[in-house]
Amino acid sequence: MANTWWEVQIQCEPALEESIFWRLENFGCRGTASEQKGSNFLVRSYLPQFQAHLLDLAALSLWLRQDALCMELPIPVVRWELIDEQDWASSWKQYWQPQEIGDRILINPAWLPVPENTERLMILLDPGVAFGTGTHATTQLCLESLEMRLSNLPESFTSQERVNEDVVIADIGCGSGILSIGALLLGAKKAYAVDNDPLAVRSTIENRAMNGVSPERLIVAEGSVDVLTKLVPQPVDGIVCNILADVIISLAPEFNAIVKPSTWGVFSGILLEQSKAVADALEKQGWVVATLWKRKEWCCLNVRRS
């Protein structure tokens, strides 16, 4: 792991926060957090020094400027500096607080006391340098979709519509493991989680242990769908995929290797303007978009096999 990190600070209008989070994630930043400063937001994000040169950071600043101009909002103020690894590891965490998501889930930072008298399902989380803290709209949409899919349904639903304890999911681009752990807490039997980033794999394994999830229930590996095809003994019941639209589109044909006629999917990391392209790519591979949930400029596609 790198010993020196770039800390990027961006002061912006609240309306720009989500687009800035997306830019930073796409740029390769990790551990992004924000806090309110008067009427503005201050976004902090971090990435290893070797991953970006000064010219790269200047380009990021230009993209953020262009995004603001397109949205007819004031241009954000962007600054960056080099900090030691031990400093970055604690810098952003002080701004991250427990967060309720949906009707049943509570994300609790691992370094904070566990709230008392809560009936929510609690995910203890220390994402380290992996993406996935629950603060981003796309992660929230995925967890809410999983809650809808995996929660107990009314008696009026048929047995075929009722989710049971035998549900197995695949989490592609697992980041911190937040979606896999959430699915298991909501009642899934087993989750297979993969990510191309070895730091994300390590983070998922650490969060698995922190939440008392057995390695037999949450299988973690480095890679993508090609690795899943070797890991899963039979097609999965559900796919969760919170990455980027372009990646989902490119992976769409590969999903066929791990699905069955009844498989459902939750796909996010998608800007509203990209939703049609993603939906088209999935429909070409035999999926039907059942619902589109949106939050600000982001959306989540809940799909099923046709």
What secondary-structure arrangement, pairings included, does this model have?
Blueprint: E1 4-12, H1 17-27, E2 30-37, E3 40-48, H2 54-70, E4 77-84, H3 85-91, E5 99-101, E6 105-109, E7 121-125, H4 137-150, E8 168-172, H5 178-185, E9 190-195, H6 198-210, E10 218-222, H7 225-231, E11 238-242, H8 245-251, E12 264-271, H9 275-284, E13 287-295, E14 298-305
Helix pairs in contact: 1-2, 4-5, 8-9
Describe the model.
The chain is an alpha/beta fold and 306 residues long. It is 31% helix and 30% strand. It contains nine helices and 14 strands. The chain has helices at 17-27, 54-70, 85-91, 137-150, 178-185, 198-210, 225-231, 245-251, 275-284, and strands at 4-12, 30-37, 40-48, 77-84, 99-101, 105-109, 121-125, 168-172, 190-195, 218-222, 238-242, 264-271, 287-295, 298-305. The strands form three sheets. It has a seven-stranded mixed beta sheet with strand order 10-9-8-11-12-14-13, with helices on both faces. Strand 13 (287-295) and strand 14 form a beta hairpin. The N and C termini lie far apart (44 Å). The model is unreliable at 153-163 (pLDDT under 50).
